[in-house]
Write a structure and sequence with these properties.
By secondary structure, the chain is mainly β. Among the domains are: 130-204, Trypsin-like serine proteases (Thrombin, subunit H, Beta Barrel), CATH 2.40.10.10; 335-419, PDZ domain (Pdz3 Domain, Roll), CATH 2.30.42. It is 10% helix and 36% strand. Strands 2, 3, 4, 20, 21, 22, 23, 24 and 25 form a nine-stranded antiparallel beta sheet that branches. Strands 9-8-5-6-7-11-10 form a seven-stranded antiparallel beta sheet. A hairpin with an 8-residue loop joins strand 13 (226-231) and strand 14.
Length: 444
């Protein structure tokens, strides 16, 4: 997007306004660009398509690089899972002072008939009461002086008793969170937990009888399918609908903080304040959480219009349920560091696949007999040609699953069976504090 000079009065301290935007260094397809956060300011002219400001205090970033139970670095190596030899007791919530514990929350799943295709107007009418605006207060200390500013974003209700899903970067560093419903009611919200690496956060308001969204299947999408987004662009144009299509699936996007995510690409208009809002299919189901867009950094670059992104709901659903039910993030765990097999080696007979660079001690991978130098070429009946494909398959596995890996080892092809373990990560503290476990499934 072109840079835009804001002549309106600004708040004392600018702050992140609830979405990522980022800038490709050259007009390349989204997978090849380096994202760069973009902030939203109040008092903007409606003719401005987007803003690109440099703000005091730095850019928005989902710090850390753990995504779906693995780490991605700049060399596209994948570590399954994250930091090693660190422990963190799962966060717990007490119901009494003496006991200091609480019972696990149980999520009841109700099937809803969503077989009817709706118009955009019908999807909006059914779901606008399930979408929310989010405003946060952020206090920053600069050289002994405190400055308080506001930030805004979107979210949506996922249970009738007040659980709300949004982006982590919408509520990052906030001192207070206020949720606004379509009916005009405002609630103070509590942060239940988050997964910074997947850019999601779960909030809770004290309300009953709310209208939750219906979660759909983001895997059951095709490029060209119609979708709509409902959110709060600019933090002022509340409960706005934008319509478009799915432009691409599994689009690999690397943010400026180093996090790589596989996202849905859409040409729905996604602007500042839309982050955390729901992306709906035409059956009225949520299939994504809007979180990013592309924009250019100067008028000299090619104009970029309507290249937005959303987190596929399937990739985060189990994490959200884990935060609500258990109070921590639970992810599949294999315990290897892998990288792609360079094409220059493939011409000498090495197969494409995920080359094992390291094996974590006492991990499921070590117990199954995986070794450094192995090249994993298949998971079950699914052939893989890159480390990303292995990471995706492991991330979509269930804890406790037994998987058969086909391995190329020193000129021979062998098979090993591995049981997927569980990685436990705090949902309320730094994501680097985590614990790996090989326990069976805990009702994921």
């Amino acid at each position: 997007m072109d840079e835009f000079e804001n002549n309106m009065e600004q708040p004392q301290q600018a702050a992140p306004y609830g979405y990522y935007s980022y800038t490709p260094s050259t007009p390349q397809p989204p997978a090849a660009s380096a994202p760069k956060p973009e902030k939203k300011h109040t008092g903007l002219k409606l003719t401005a398509l987007a803003l690109c400001f440099s703000l005091l205090g730095g850019a928005i970033g989902a710090g850390g690089v753990l995504a779906a139970g693995y780490l991605m670095n700049d060399n596209k190596d994948a570590v399954i899972p994250g930091n090693q030899n660190q422990t963190q007791n799962p966060a717990s919530d007490s119901t009494t002072i003496l006991e200091g514990n609480r019972g696990n929350t149980v999520i009841d799943i109700n099937a809803i008939d969503t077989s009817k295709i709706m118009t955009a107007a019908e999807v909006y009418a059914v779901n606008v009461n399930s979408t929310v605006g989010i405003t946060t207060s952020i206090t920053t200390n600069y050289w002994g002086y405190q400055s308080t500013s506001a930030a805004s974003g979107s979210g949506f209700i996922i249970s009738d008793d007040g659980y709300i899903l949004t982006n982590f970067h919408v509520i990052e560093s906030s001192n207070s969170i206020t949720v606004s419903l379509y009916n005009g009611k405002n609630y103070d919200a509590s942060l239940i937990g988050y997964d910074e690496s997947n850019d999601i956060a779960v909030l809770k308001i004290e309300a009953e009888g709310l209208s939750p969204v219906v979660l759909g299947d983001s895997d059951n999408l095709n490029v060209g399918d119609s979708v709509i987004a409902i959110g709060n662009p600019l933090g002022e144009l509340t409960f706005s609908l934008t319509a478009g299509t799915i432009s691409a699936k599994d689009r690999e996007v690397t943010f400026s903080g180093g996090i790589t995510m596989n996202l849905l690409q859409t040409d729905c208009a996604i602007n500042s304040g839309n982050s955390g809002g729901a992306l709906f299919n035409m059956y009225g189901e949520v299939i994504g959480v809007t979180n990013a867009k592309y924009s250019s950094s100067s008028s000299s670059e090619a104009s970029i219009d309507n290249i937005g992104f959303a987190i596929p709901i399937n990739s985060i659903r189990s994490i959200v349920e884990s935060i609500i039910e258990k109070g921590y993030v639970s992810k599949p765990y294999l315990g290897v560091s892998v990288s792609d097999v360079n094409e220059s080696y493939q011409i000498y007979g090495l197969p494409a696949g995920a080359a094992v660079q390291a094996v974590t001690e006492d991990s499921p991978a070590e117990k199954a007999g995986l070794q450094i130098g192995d090249i994993i070429t298949k998971v079950g009946d699914t052939e893989i040609s890159s480390s990303d494909e292995l990471v995706s398959l492991i991330g979509n596995s269930e804890i406790g699953d037994s998987l058969t890996l086909t391995i190329y080892r020193r000129g021979q092809t062998i098979s090993v069976t591995v049981e997927i373990g569980e990685q436990i990560q705090s949902a309320t503290s730094d994501s680097s504090n985590q614990q790996q476990s090989q326990r069976p499934s805990m009702g994921r």
